[in-house]
Amino acid sequence: MTETTQNQISAENPQAIENWVRLNNEVIRLGLEWFHLVLEEYIQNRRSEIPPSNGSSENPVITDLAADWLLRSLRREEKLPTPEKIKTARNNFDNARKNMEQTGEPSTLDRLSKAFGLSPFDEDVMVMGLAPFAQAGFSALLGYAHDRSNLSQGTPHLALALFTNGNEESEALARERFSPNSPLRRYALIETDPESTGMLAPFRLGERIGRLFFGEEYCDSAVEPLLGPVPAGHCPTRHQDPVNKLAQTLEKRGLNAALILGPKRCGKYMAAARLAGTFGMNLVEMKPNKLSPNFATRRAQFNVLSREAILGNAAVVINLSAQGKFDSDEKKQTALSAAEDALRYLESLVIVISDEHPELPDWLPLLNLHALTALDRMDIWSRELAEGITITHDEIEALSEHFALGPGEIASLCKTMQTDDPSEYWSSGRKIASRGLDDLAEKIESGFTWEDLQLPEDLMHDLKAIAAQVRHRSDVYNRGGFGRKLIRGRGVSVLFAGSSGVGKTMAAEVIANELDLGLYKIDLSSVISKYIGETEKNLKRVFDAAEAGGAVLFFDEADALFGKRSEVKDSHDRYANIEVSYLLQRMESYKGLSILATNMKSHIDVAFLRRLRFVIDIPFPSVSLRTAIWQRAFPEETKTENLDFSALGRLELAGGNIVVIAVNAAFLAAAEGAPVNMSHIARSAQSEMRKLDKEPRIPWI
């Protein structure tokens, strides 16, 4: 691979910039002075060959007198040019360029020549194109030289006449320099009219190149919508050696393209940036969906993209990752087609990144990246945190273990937050990592704590053990060494079984609050599809979205999917088993906590239950537990009067029903402007019992 470099003057040295501008402007002045003499000599020679005009020309440009005045005003002297003067002017022009080269900061013309491999003839053509851009008088003179009012710019015909010695060999070579594959046109250094072809087809410098001659840098508006910045961040340490080997492969094989594959948030952008950096290049992203569908227009876009990539010393990355990027097969195919065209036409280092292997040429060198581990993320956090931010090793470890953020997300978070409070990073990490999950599941906000949960002591012990397994995952798997023994099945998978209202959802809320993690509820009955394979796709979207955030996933109505299906009697049983197996496999591999809830544990096959880490049977609450639930049912702010909690405890209702009764009783009391009393509770309890098809017997009435 040929490394293209463009020396940039340090923006930290204004004096150096000012000096370069002065010298560069002098090169331009001397170049235009030489071109003026060459053009004037051509005009004078043409005059001697062509009879004087009688003023009846069909395409009058300017009069001879006006032409003479323009020639003198541009040259600022009366005498006609001589070969010696032209040679001296050319020497002055060349010497000024050489002097700038020797300073290490060459002129714009020499930078363009080196970057795009221009020949001396190409350089002269660039000067011809610059002339009417820099000085308006040249437009009229060029029209006069062509004897056509519509040819006020340079043409191949005039360039051949001015810059070649007239023999057939040099003219044939010069014609090649105007072909579509020549550097001048391939990189859009000169612009031509698509409708005009041949030796009299005019060319010009576009505004981008014209202004660049005078040191003005900006991205061409024609390609600016096609490009975007690449996420900043450090390349994970584990990726650096493979990236370096990939660079060696490209250099050895003389290739300028590569394919990097890897799962979401593994650092593909950072690996691409490091690959570009090994060749001294920056990295920009090309947006494939912004390219024109018209082939000719798209080809022209790639010409300009190639030019801008070389001018900016940039490699181009194209992201074909499917997740959240393409909402239809048509858009995915459009992006793939754009990547293929980029590999074919874009003359820069092209790096394609994707989470799946796209259908691209087999010759592309491939780098497969693995998902980042918590240790990888710890390294990135440590490198990205600003100097002076004092977050402990344990706090960084907790962030890395619970939130599978990518390098770019960690870098962005650290850049925007300048605080020593680890809870701020935890809160932001949880928010970033859970993006996308809100559209797939119901987020449950709750303030319940262990004190709100009234369950038998042994169950409370089991629930706290579940929370401990999530919190101390790093202690056991990393420092404790179990990670080497237990490669798979690290997910904390749980089943909560019990009748409605006994506290399955509340238990999940308490654990999520204890861990300070988001809780998302997924109704399995709405995930199941009658179409083969769709249920797995729905589950995959949920788990993929949740993976980075370590969220607590609460799958309600699990009995809609589970059943005694181990004996396959028909195709429905077979596919039901596949769906269950897929869910359990994802729960086992999920890095967070996933909970199944069911009212009918007996419908779940024992073979499936054995694959779960915890199975918690939440019983209908006893009288003592119901009494305790009633005692905590009313907030301290709610005024109550003469409540008999022993009597309330004798109501055979689950905790969820008790909460509903308490709320409804508070509304009844508020309507009367009175404290909540046993009468309000009795009326609410009767209503709730009728809803449950129970006989509304109230002991104290």
TrEMBL record:
One Gene Ontology MF term: ATP binding
Pfam family of the protein (one): AAA
SMART domains linked to this entry: AAA
Highest taxon listed in the record's lineage: Bacteria
Keywords, in A-Z order: ATP-binding, Nucleotide-binding
Domain AAA+ ATPase: 490-622
Family: Belongs to the AAA ATPase family.
Protein name stated in the entry: ATP-binding protein
Source organism of this protein record: Candidatus Nitronauta litoralis
